[in-house]
């Protein structure tokens, strides 16, 4: 196997899935080993569907999923599942009657690397008592217990589907610290989904944007936030046609006279372009994650419409 393949924790290849009112793919996507990757996207994009495919809880109609160099769903997945921790978006109703420590005890029999001390430390850090039926806990208490249970066998790959759902700010902070410590050894991988901008900013090394069953883009976080800016510019004789030529331009708004607000995904090149063209940058502002997402969705909608129109014209 090549070095390139060994660097990937998860490889999705040509994944296609169809459900009533939903079509996914084809998706080809690599999740790098040793990093935290966050998948972000509107409700119903297919984020949880991808998670379920990793665990063979849902089979793609087409394509393959390879996890830690093991092709999923082609034989005995039990050894690879030993190396995965999973926190699903929704709690499992059939666990309701179990006390959290009973679920932990059950998992300790299954996972060879289960570490009871680690489990206790996690409960302590999250300030939660596991001596209650999961179904009688508050949403946040249950989330904390399930989080501790997902991490107690120190998995090589951790799948977190909206991990902070229901957590109070203090517990949220503890969770972020726990996850940073979990990554300390350097060879572990987290794949997570989140709708919380601050959480993605604090945790993710890589960000995958998804919408309507497709991947819109994969970005290294720091590069993403240093590339997407809105420039407020002005220049002698500056027209919207000229402004539209700014590198990476993905939105223009006239703000009167010869001034424009231009959004770009290539801030560095855009600044150089302004200098060359004699355009003054009055101010610039980095885009937030949700603003980048909106812009990508808008661009995707436009390119889809153009594609459809071309298809009809043929
Ligand atoms: N059990 C199911 N039966 C039929 N369709 C389903 C089922 N579960 C999910 N879907 C559909 O699959 C699509 C993708 O859902 P998925 O849960 O993967 O999205 P998501 O991106 O995780 O959304 P969210 O942000 O709301 O959690 C949706 O259109 C949803 O309606």
TrEMBL record:
One Pfam short name: ABC_tran
All copies of domain ABC transporter, residue ranges: 10-237
Entry-linked CDD domains: ABC_DR_subfamily_A (cd03230)
GO molecular function annotations of the record: ATP binding; ATP hydrolysis activity
Highest taxon above the source species: Bacteria
InterPro entries reported for this sequence: AAA+_ATPase, ABC_transporter-like_ATP-bd, ABC_Transporter_VariousFunc, P-loop_NTPase
PROSITE patterns: ABC_TRANSPORTER_2
Keywords linked to the UniProt accession: ATP-binding, Nucleotide-binding, Transport
Protein known as: ABC transporter ATP-binding protein
């Amino acid at each position: 196997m090549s070095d390139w393949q060994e660097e990937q924790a998860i490889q999705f290849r040509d994944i296609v899935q169809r459900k009533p009112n939903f079509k996914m793919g084809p998706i080809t996507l690599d999740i790098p080993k040793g990093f935290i990757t966050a998948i972000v996207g509107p409700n119903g994009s297919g984020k949880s569907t991808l998670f379920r495919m990793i665990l063979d809880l849902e089979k793609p109609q087409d394509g393959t999923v390879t996890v830690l160099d093991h092709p999923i769903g082609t034989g005995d997945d039990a050894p690879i599942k030993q190396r995965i921790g999973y926190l699903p978006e929704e709690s499992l109703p059939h666990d309701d009657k179990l006390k959290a420590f009973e679920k932990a005890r059950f998992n300790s029999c299954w996972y060879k690397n289960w570490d009871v001390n680690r489990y206790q430390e996690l409960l302590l850090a999250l300030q939660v008592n596991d001596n209650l039926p999961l179904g009688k806990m508050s949403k946040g208490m249950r989330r904390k217990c399930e989080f501790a249970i997902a991490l107690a066998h120190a998995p090589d790959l951790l799948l977190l589907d909206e991990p902070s759902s229901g957590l109070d700010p203090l517990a949220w902070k503890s969770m972020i610290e726990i996850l940073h410590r979990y990554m300390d050894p350097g060879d572990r991988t987290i794949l997570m989904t989140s709708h919380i901008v601050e959480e993605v900013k604090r945790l993710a090394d890589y960000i995958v944007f998804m919408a309507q069953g497709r991947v819109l883009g994969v970005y290294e976080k720091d590069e993403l936030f240093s590339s997407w800016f809105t420039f407020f510019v002005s220049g002698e004789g500056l027209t919207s046609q000229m402004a539209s030529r700014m590198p990476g331009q993905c939105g223009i708004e006239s703000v009167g006279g010869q001034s424009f607000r231009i959004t770009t995904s290539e801030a560095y090149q855009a600044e150089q372009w302004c200098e060359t063209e004699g355009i003054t940058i009055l101010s610039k502002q980095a885009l937030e994650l949700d603003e980048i997402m909106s812009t990508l969705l808008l661009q995707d909608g436009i390119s889809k419409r153009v594609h459809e129109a071309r298809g009809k014209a043929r």
